Amino acid sequence: MREVERSAGSVEEALEAALAEIGATEQEVEVEIVREPRGGFLGVGSQEAVVRVRLRAGDGPLGGAPQELAGTPDTAGDDEPEAGVVGTGDGDASGERGDSAEPEAGERMDPALQEVLEDQADLVADFLEGLFDAMDLRAEVETALVEGTMYVEVWATDEEENVGLLIGRHGQALDALQEVVRAVVLHRTNERCMVIVDVEDYRKRRRDQIVSRTRDAAQLAKQTGRAEALEPMNAYERKIAHDAAGRIGGVTSQSEGEDPDRRVVIHRA
User: Fold this and answer.
1) What is the total count of domains within the chain?
2) Lowest mean per-residue pLDDT among 23-32, 87-96, 121-130, 226-235
3) The domain containing residue 194 runs over which residues?
4) Most CB within 10 Å of its CB: which of 11, 15, 110, 239?
5) Whole-angstrom distance, CA of residue 86 vs CA of residue 71
6) Largest CA distance in the chain
7) Is the residue at 123 inside a domain?
8) Best CA proximity match to 237, nearest among 260, 268, 218, 269
9) Model pTM?
10) In a domain, 125, yes or no
11) Which of 74-78, 114-118, 178-182 is predicted least confidently?
């Protein structure tokens, strides 16, 4: 069984680097957190996170070879920005998703994996419902498996109910909520969280915006030969941009800069 071990400044970034190297999505692998990151004191004794991933039996949820991730996600803590990956797709498919490789129409997810996703989604939904009750926030929580990604979706119960505080400026509150959910799933199941929390379809709309902007930047880079930089994004959004760029022929993508100003830059191949 093939496995890859990578290190980075955070668990999320180490996992993204390992997934890119092994050429699989998070739902196609078993994840082992070998070491949590540590800041140290005055720079002494600090250590990076270390993550090990192994392909699941059958090489992925569809029982075949894993689908290769397009683009290279960020690896904070490395001395050099990650090398870009040349896109091989034509970028014309409408509604393509950048945050995960998905089953083709008619293909089915491995039942064992789907059961894990459903169990995690139910756990997260119950947790959020309790949290919203404590916050006196009226919201409806649903679970939905959408094109291979399990979402726990939060909706306002009426038009006047404001759940915008759960999204926050540029999605910062939603990112924080996702981190809380990840910790809850890990604590209660000893498994890595594989579900995504979305509020009023914010993540889906944001994903579509990033994919559209990446395509525009890629076309400009191909036409002019100049590098095109996208706006600063967090690691989750940068991965969407890398994946979208990887589906467009004739360009490469890489991340440049330091957080919070780290961004994806598109180059002509």
Assistant:
1) 1
2) 87-96
3) 111-203
4) 239
5) 7
6) 55
7) yes
8) 260
9) 0.64
10) yes
11) 74-78
Which residues sit opposite 252 in a β-bridge? 267
What single-letter amino acid sits at 152? V
Residue 73 within any structural domain of the chain: no
Q: Amino acid letter at 172?
A: Q
- Rounded mean pLDDT of 71-91? 38
Q: How many residues does the chain have?
A: 269
Residues 83 and 254: beta-carbon distance below 8 Å:
yes
Cβ neighbour number for residue 225 with a 10 Å cutoff:
9
Tokens 């034509």: give the residue: 90
Question: What's the pLDDT at 45?
Answer: 60
- Domain presence at residue 127: yes
Distance CA 249, CA 240 (A): 16
